[in-house]
Each structure stands twice: as structure tokens, then as C-alpha cells.
Amino acid sequence: KQEVTQIPAALSVPEGENLVLNCSFTDSAIYNLQWFRQDPGKGLTSLLLIQSSQREQTSGRLNASLDKSSGRSTLYIAASQPGDSATYLCAVGEEYGNKLVFGAGTILRVKS
Amino acid sequence: DAGVIQSPRHEVTEMGQEVTLRCKPISGHDYLFWYRQTMMRGLELLIYFNNNVPIDDSGMPEDRFSAKMPNASFSTLKIQPSEPRDSAVYFCASSSWDRVSDQPQHFGDGTRLSIL
Question: What tens digit of pLDDT does each residue of B32-76 get?
Fold first, then answer.
């Protein structure tokens, strides 16, 4: 059974810092990997989707990498801002990406 | 474009009552997913549909839970009878199939369910 772990569970940084969130998974036979953001009382917003054949994806200040063989992904956030404060969730996609297995998330706080 | 719409946003009811959660997916999306989020278990997939047909319901916790998708623009998740341990936030998500690249799932804002 696939298990997804995210480290750290919580992170507090001053504004402007670059930071890395980590995600690991136990079964490397994944279809894709997605990073989501969740704001309090809201649903999830997709940030980046990396297909199994890809190594990384970038969107603005966000960069996500995938190393399928080692079961790891990282989300890099450059020049963090208070508006980046949220919970970040990693999810691995199985069954053509339709079954998502989520990690517990990293709660990020960016202090101004 | 309207996103995934869920109703109600909040529901408080007594144990034993029937609860019905509703979802309107994004127009044109052919996949619909129901998730449950709790502090203890995180976010779990309950069931998903493709073209209104249930594909995988292995995440549905008990027979008290049922889901239907009578048409492409509406789905329900029903709990009967409800129990306090069903208290959670229930999310609906939808996505489309694309032959070129994977498409992300789009989530609604959820229904916060409290069973007293």
C-alpha cells in the first residue's frame, strides 16, 4: 500500500527566504505526482503536476522535482512571501492518475 | 469559469439522521471524486466516477455511505444513518481527460460536517 510522507510537518520562515518542502513515497510505480496548496477553510488548489516521465516542473517562484527511483519529490519556493502561508500537500497519482494518495501536508508560515 | 460547487458548506445534524452532500463539477469534466479530510487520517479518496459511472468505491468506509451521479453535472454523497465519527470535511473534485498530458483535479471548498 502506497504511503506518502511529508517533512517537515510545519515550517516558519521570514519573508524573502528560499525554502524546500519534502515528500517521499514508498512505491515508485506512480503515474504522476502533484503538489497542492490548501488555505484555511478552503479546498485544494493544484500548484504543479509532474508526469512520471518528467523530472521537474516550474511555475513562477515554484519548482517541483521528482526522483521516481528514490521515491522523492521536493517543492522549492523562491523568495517566500506572507501570501505563501498555507498548507502544502503532496499527492502521488495511481491508476492513470485518478487515485491520489496524499501526504499529511506541511504547514508553512511566512513572517513579514 | 465557475469552479466545483459544493453544498451545503456546513452541516450540523444529530446522530442517526440522513445526510446528503451535493456537488456540481466543472462543466466538461468527465471525472468526479469524493474525498474526506480528518485530522487523524488526512485526505482520503472515497469514490470516483468516470462519465457518471462509479469506477472505484474501495475507499467508502461502510455501507452507510453511498454516492450517485445521475448526470454529468450533479453528484451526491449520502450517509444514512450518520454517526459522530463521520464528522469531517468532505471534498468533491473534478478533472478532465486529455490524451496529451495529465490534468490536475479541481477541488470544491468542501462541506464541513458535524454529527452530534
Answer: 999 999 999 999 999 999 999 999 999 998 899 999 999 999 999
Q: Which residue of A has its CA nearest to B4?
A: A43
| Chain B interface test: which of A100, A101, A106, A107 (most B C-beta within 10 Å) | A100
Write the pLDDT tens digit of every residue in A46-76.
999 999 999 999 999 999 999 999 999 999 9
Extended beta strands in A30-105, E state: 32-38, 44-51, 56-59, 62-67, 72-77, 86-94, 99-102
Q: How many CB atoms lie within 10 A of CB A12?
A: 11
Give the closest residue to B4 by CA, choosing from B66, B90, B82, B91: B91
Name the grid cell of B77.
Answer: 454523497
Phi, psi of A56, deg, nearest 5: -160, 165
Residue with cell 485526505: B43
Instruction: Show residues of chain B in contact with A95, CB under 8 Å.
Output: 56
Looking at residue B20, what is its pLDDT? 98
For A84-112, how does the pLDDT look when each residue is reduced to its tens digit (9 = 90+)?
999 999 999 987 777 899 999 999 999 99
> Are A102 and B43 in contact (CB < 8 Å)?
yes
Instruction: Verify whether the Cβ–Cβ distance A43 to B104 is below 8 Å.
Output: no
